[in-house]
UniProtKB/TrEMBL annotation:
Name of the protein this chain belongs to: protein acetyllysine N-acetyltransferase
Active-site annotation: 116
Key word Ion transport present: no
A Pfam entry, by short name: SIR2
The keyword Transferase is annotated on this UniProt entry: yes
Keyword annotations: Metal-binding, NAD, Transferase, Zinc
Origin organism lineage: Bacteria, Bacillati, Bacillota, Bacilli, Bacillales
Any one Gene Ontology molecular-function term assigned to this protein's record: NAD+ binding
Enzyme Commission numbers on file: 2.3.1.286
């Protein structure tokens, strides 16, 4: 099967499937680890639910504003290397990410499918107007109409955007190489994307936690930053 570097060099269509572990080295906490966003919080899933936004918008806003925005975070070696690979001639690279922090785009990746949306796109739920995230961080009340502003992220109880699903599947079904990075790969439907890979495609997983996948793949159980720096 060869090494990851060899597969990246020989493959023309590459998909990176990335999770929270890719952004942790940039100072953004994940959700469920020992020091994660959910640690020590009562019912954190409710705080990130459509019900909370609808019934207790102030509680939703305070939690999101104070715990989820890291506007000064910078891309790390993983983001940068993925963007560099995309710039290479003859490579069609797609990043499908669970992350909502915008760091793949900040690193220069152009073909990014944000599976769960982005904190840095916001709109007013009353008038539909697009609102800058900087404005949202100052207030969740729209100054034009008084409506409640929300970030365009997928909350608990909400469906994934069709364009995100279609974009991910379009890339996966054509990929020669799929590289899973920084995710436990247990959250559905993200973890089901590999069910649609084409016959003969190569799959690598780079993660500190061992993944157990029901098909042939190569596991690199190591720090992803170190692995991507060496590529």
């Amino acid at each position: 099967m060869g090494t990851l570097a060899e597969s990246l060099a020989s493959s023309e269509r590459i998909v990176f499937l990335t999770g929270a572990g890719v952004s942790v080295p940039s100072g953004i906490p994940d959700y469920r680890s020992k020091n994660g966003l959910y640690t020590g919080r009562e019912n954190p899933e409710y705080l990130l639910s459509a019900t909370c936004l609808r019934n207790e918008p102030d509680k939703f806003y305070t939690f999101v504003r104070d715990n989820m925005y890291y506007p000064d975070a910078e891309p790390n070696a993983i983001h940068e290397k993925m963007a560099e690979i995309e710039r290479r001639a003859g490579k069609q690279v797609t990043v499908v990410t669970q992350n909502i922090d915008g760091l793949h785009e900040k690193a220069g990746s152009r073909n990014v499918v944000e599976f769960h949306g982005s904190l840095y796109r916001c709109h007013c739920q009353k008038c539909g107007m697009t609102v800058r995230s900087e404005q949202y961080l100052e207030s969740d009340k729209h100054e034009n109409c008084g409506g409640i502003i929300r970030p365009e992220v997928v909350l608990y109880e909400e469906n994934l955007p069709e364009d995100a699903i279609n974009g991910a599947l379009a890339a996966i079904t054509k990929a020669d190489l799929i590289v899973i990075v920084g995710t436990s790969f247990k959250v559905s439907p993200f973890c089901n994307l590999t069910d649609y890979r084409k016959r003969g495609s190569t799959v690598f997983a780079v993660n500190q936690e061992l993944l157990r996948l029901p098909f042939q793949y190569t596991m690199i159980q190591d720090d992803a930053v170190s692995i991507f720096k060496e590529l």
